[in-house]
Design a protein that fits this description.
By secondary structure, this protein is α+β, with helices and mostly antiparallel strands. The protein has one domain (8-62). The chain has one helix and five strands; from the N terminus they run E-E-E-H-E-E. It has one helix at residues 34-50, and strands spanning 8-10, 14-18, 24-28, 55-59, 67-70. The chain has a five-stranded mixed sheet, covered by helices on one side. It starts with 7 loop residues before the first strand and ends with a strand.
Length: 72
């Protein structure tokens, strides 16, 4: 999470933030495995940027099943 970034809370998606590149990120409501979720987030972002894809949402609520949504 970039320093100074305000955290958000959504009842459906949990704790998150708006990435400086414009997409929403959510980690879920359970603080367990936060370090693993943040590491997985970095992997997903690197992969998306390498493929020149722009997500609107990256959700890591369930570490075993993270997902992202692309712009339409």
């Amino acid at each position: 999470i970039p320093a100074g970034t305000p955290l958000l809370y959504d009842a459906e998606n949990g704790v998150g933030w708006t990435d400086p590149q414009g997409w929403q990120v959510y980690l879920g409501t359970d603080p367990a495995d936060i370090d693993l979720k943040l590491a997985e987030y970095q992997v997903i972002v690197a992969d998306l940027l390498e493929r020149n894809l722009q997500p609107v949402l990256i959700n890591l609520e369930y570490l075993h099943a993270p997902y992202y949504r692309l712009e339409h």
